[in-house]
Amino acid sequence: MRIGVALFVGAVEFGSLFDATGSWGCIMEAPTFTTQEYETFELLVSARTGEGYPVVITSSPAGEASGFCSLDPSTAVHRVALQGIESGEIDDRVLAEFGCCLFNAIFPGPIAAVYRSSLGRARAQGRGLRVRLRMEPSELAELPWEYLCDGEEDCFLALSAETPLVRHVPMPRPSRPIAVRPPLRVLVVLCSPTDVLPLDAEQERAHERLEKLDILDLFDAVVTFDMTGKKKPAPDSLSLALDKLGVGPDEAILVGDSLVRDIGQGKALGMITVHASYGDRNLLQKGGETPDFRIDSVEQIREVVSQLSIDN
Questions:
Q1: Across residues 167-173, what is the average pLDDT?
Q2: How is residue 299 annotated by DSSP?
Q3: 280-291 per-residue burial string, b: 16 or more CB within 10 A, e: under 16
Q4: Are 225 and 11 in contact (CB under 8 A)?
Q5: Are 95 and 88 in contact, with CB atoms under 8 Å apart?
Q6: Domains of the chain, first to last
Q7: What does the pLDDT look like over 36-73, one tens digit per residue?
Q8: What is the dihedral of CA 143, 138, 253, 270, to 10 degrees?
Q9: Count of Cβ atoms closer than 10 Å to residue 115 Cβ
Q10: Are the beta carbons of 220 and 245 closer than 8 angstroms?
């Protein structure tokens, strides 16, 4: 079974094919890529107490531990760093220092020790270590934890294939199966937030970037917001992508990290929707549509596709 895919990245949208076995490919021939397997290191951060924010390791290869996060998001140092990130006027050194500050705050002594041990065990097995954050306090959930920087390893966790960083919000109900008539087309949407400087797809030359990565020929369509003049949550770019792929909304899946900007427009078009909660910085805010599925890692897209394929 072959499944059409449209991949939305920031202001740039890409269309391609996805083999039912999980391999990316073009129409004529699909190359196979090695899939990285991961252990999970999950942190739960609870409401502030007199000692700070309680941090507990709820899952890891090296056992459990607990501690307190003493981070104060309202301090001047943090405000200046956040303003620099929002404006784009922050150099790499300051950004790394800010990321290290976040890392040290959420990985206090005993938790850092278990993290190092977990990372070592994962490496010994040739696996990665997925860091999953469950942030209950809204004032912490709003922080850009995607900038976590491990000073000892000298790397940003989210930029390393070895330590992907995801956010997770547990749901009180399981995902419900949905009847779909094959062939199945999948529409994947990644974030293009409205509260930061927008990406200029033309200026950044989307095609050249794909060519540089040697993956341009894997995509059937490339759609940028300037082709419609409308940004999310307007569904114009989605409609254009569907037209280019030659499928209807009922034959496509939209995966996005915003319940309002992504899931909302997918629902409006009648698409199957999947909420990528690991990339949603506004999880605790009210509003938005209820998705058909929720995932907390990119790999779980395959599970959704497999479930829909089995149901049909």
A1: 73
A2: T
A3: bbbbeeeebbeb
A4: yes
A5: no
A6: 2-35+175-311 (3.40.50.1000), 38-160 (no CATH)
A7: 789 999 999 999 999 999 999 999 999 999 999 988 87
A8: -130
A9: 23
A10: yes
Contact indicator for 266, 260 with CB cutoff of 8 Å: no
Q: Which has the closest alpha carbon to 121: 196, 33, 219, 38? A: 38
Strand bridging mode 253-256 / 272-276 = parallel
The predicted pLDDT at position 62 comes to 94
* Residues 52 and 70: beta-carbon distance below 8 Å: yes
Is the pLDDT at 33 greater than 70, yes or no?
no
Q: Dihedral angle at the C-alpha atoms of 45, 40, 176, 1, nearest 10 degrees?
A: 150
How far apart are alpha carbons 176 and 293 in whole angstroms? 7
List, for residues 110-139, the tens digit of each pLDDT value. 999 999 999 999 999 999 999 999 999 988
Higher pLDDT, 2 or 118: 118
Write the DSSP symbol of residue 40: E
Distance of CA 85 to the CA centre of its chain: 19
Query: Phi and psi for 294 in degrees, rounded to 5?
Result: -130, 140
Q: How far is CA 305 from CA 1, 36, 183, in A?
A: 11, 19, 11
DSSP 165-182: EEE----SSPPPP---PS
Decide: pTM greater than 0.85. Answer: no
Q: Are strands 185-189 and 253-256 parallel, antiparallel or unpaired?
A: parallel
Structure tokens at 77: 């140092």
Whole-number Cα distances in Å, 293 to 115, 255, 300, 304: 30, 9, 10, 8
- Using CA atoms, how far apart are residues 279 and 177, in angstroms rounded to an integer? 23
Q: What is the C-alpha separation between 261 and 230, in angstroms, rounded?
A: 12
**β-pair type (38-45, 128-135):** parallel
